[in-house]
Write a structure and sequence with these properties.
The structure is a homodimer.
Chain A lengths: L14 H8 L3 H8 L7 H13 L15 E6 L4 H18 L2 E6 L8 H10 L3 E5 L5 H9 L4 E4 L11 E4 L1 H14 L5 E5 L5 H17 L8 E3 L4 H12 L7 E4 L2 H13 L9 E6 L12 E4 L2 H16 L8 E4 L2 E3 L28
Parallel strand pairs in A: 1-2, 1-3, 3-4, 4-5, 5-11, 6-7, 6-8, 8-9, 9-10
Antiparallel strand pairs in A: 10-12
GO molecular function (chains A, B): DNA-binding transcription factor activity; transcription cis-regulatory region binding
Protein name (chains A, B): Transcriptional regulator
Keywords (chains A, B): DNA-binding, Transcription, Transcription regulation
Chain lengths: ~350, ~350
């Protein structure tokens, strides 16, 4: 293989330069840029390599041709959580007369090349990614295409260059644990989201910091990573609450997961909040309606989504962002599912065997 | 005003015919067809009138130019209900490599002309309307544009010509009331959705039919129309349960609304199901997780959405539908929120004044 020629001036290459260098037609380079699939994989890889080395970027004049759409892509559609995000995005796009193209990655953490190719074909104003991230090479691809992107509630540590809107998860974990410690609880469990998702780890770190502040040791057995679904809360909840030294309080990874924890308590004949305090996360509208109404950490999902959408539309207009990383404030909302620790509710009396198993379906 | 010339053969007019007749350029007629806004309203109205009188239709050859997108439009994004619909649509579109453009009408029952104009500009494969409907003139507009449409869970009686997927709401109401009557309840309330929405009335009709079957009279005071939100269930629930002759069972318009009813019961110190049986509607995933787990009518939302999407894609390919109106089956799912009527739980003992008001936020 020959050594590729040095790059004269990054960003100055035209499609013709790339075509010349790779030894293909201008049409072929265009096809690669437009996400067309009728290019041999080997050719495509060579074109991509050259585009990347030259830091090729579409000329700004091409931007006029873009549609009035943004892509909103979820790691996975999920419960009422996703609706809050969609509502936040829509509140901004409706006013800007921009349409939302909705998709999900079916649980994958990064979009596939195929998905990106359809995006290049459509040329949206921008891409909004929720709870997923772009691999560095994918980021560069989108930059070459001059398609801006913003990440909402990233699932991983992204470079400071990636515009990101999140919320202060560490603070959320801190507030939840402080509240329970102030109520006198000393054996507090946490069931977070997946361990490989950044926000899960940040919340657990905040939870630990509150314990450190209070001089209370965290029992490693009471720190769990699950997922944000109700069954995960139920599974971990049953396991935790069946322990002879069961926790007197559980901090859940989501409101939905907290519903699974509360169901576990009912299944074991434990009353929330008398025998067990439960704190959720998100503050979905339903948190006020379940019984007992859920004490939870408010994550301003609609605001996060709205802020990210405004950033994306600013970028699409060619504006510079004042700041590329915004974390909105989390706060604790105290309702009915938490109560002071009381003697007798703790682990000492929990092994009395008077647990009643509710009928389940 | 002159009398417009008679139409030679419906559907045979070309853009040139229309332009000639109205006395405008072909470009102007094109602009109206493409939803462009740079046409004077008066001119536009005349063009529309002529298009409609000639029953103008785009030539099929234009269809090749359409995008690989469908429009999914909700009356309003709402809770986890909308996510079930979105999941059902996405399961079909993902396989067909079709994108979803998502919008909502902000509570309006029919799309605005402005919304339709953006659709004409984009030329999607088709339009899927959820819990809303197209006015007859709008239906004809879309037909002229050769953009097919399908309605999911229509909010009004549509002509048999409009492809519609729903579920058997009458049967749902019948099953819920039969279940409660079989449990021995005699004072059963129903809180349905809005009275002007077809499915609400169908469910109440089914509820009445079950009473007729059983020879039990429906107290008109116990038949309520609200909306599908939790607060509506809470408001009507509190009002019903504070009556001296309070119902011993309530059939709610949605699972979300049922959560509001159950909260009303808790606020008044009534236990579900001991003092009050509650039946929901929809069978959202959360119905299994709330306490007590909700007895509810399963409305196969994902299947409904998937079936409607397949119909729409068939129409977009120019296929004829075997049937234009499909109602999927509803069924009762019995969980924990319903129990046999027991002496003492009824109205006679309910005015004892021992109601306790829970603290609320």
């Amino acid at each position: 293989m020959t050594v590729p020629p040095p790059v004269a001036k990054p960003g100055s290459a035209t499609i013709a330069t790339i075509a010349d260098e790779v030894g293909v037609s201008v049409t072929t380079v265009s096809k690669v840029l437009n996400g067309r699939t009728d290019v041999a994989p080997e050719t495509r890889a060579r074109v991509e390599e050259s585009l990347e080395r030259h830091r090729y970027r579409r000329r700004a004049s091409r931007q006029a041709a873009t549609s009035q759409q943004i892509d909103l892509v979820f790691h996975e559609f999920d419960t009422a959580w996703a609706i809050e995000i969609i509502k936040g995005v829509e509140a901004v796009t409706a006013g800007a007369k921009v349409d939302i193209v909705l998709s999900q990655l079916g649980g994958a953490h990064s979009p596939s090349q195929q998905w990106l190719d359809t995006v290049y074909g459509r040329r949206p104003l921008g891409v909004l990614l929720v709870l997923c991230h772009l691999a560095p090479a994918q980021q560069r691809q989108l930059q070459r295409q001059r398609i801006p992107f913003v990440v909402v509630d990233t699932d991983s540590a992204t470079s400071a260059m990636v515009p990101t809107v999140g919320s202060n998860n560490w603070n959320g974990g801190l507030l939840a644990a402080r509240h329970l410690l102030e109520l006198g609880h000393r054996r507090i469990a946490v069931i977070s989201g997946p361990e490989d998702v950044l926000c899960s780890r940040a919340r657990v770190a905040g939870f630990r910091s509150a314990h450190d502040e209070a001089g209370v040791q965290v029992d490693p057995e009471l720190v769990r990573f699950g997922n944000f679904a109700a069954y995960s809360g139920n599974d971990h909840g049953l396991e935790l609450l069946r322990r002879p030294d069961r926790p007197t309080a559980i901090f859940a990874g989501s409101d939905i997961q907290a519903m699974g924890v509360m169901r576990a308590a009912r299944q074991l004949g434990l009353d929330v909040p008398r025998d067990l305090s439960v704190v959720g996360y998100d503050n979905l509208p339903m948190a006020t309606w379940i019984g007992p109404a859920l004490t939870t950490v408010n994550q301003p999902l609609r605001d996060m989504a709205g802020t990210a959408t405004r950033m994306l539309l600013d970028l699409a207009r060619g504006e510079e962002l004042a700041t590329s990383r915004i974390d909105l404030v989390t706060e604790l909302i105290v309702r009915e599912s938490t109560a002071p620790w009381r003697p007798g509710s703790g682990p000492a009396s929990s092994s009395s065997g008077k647990a009643v198993v509710e009928r389940t379906d």
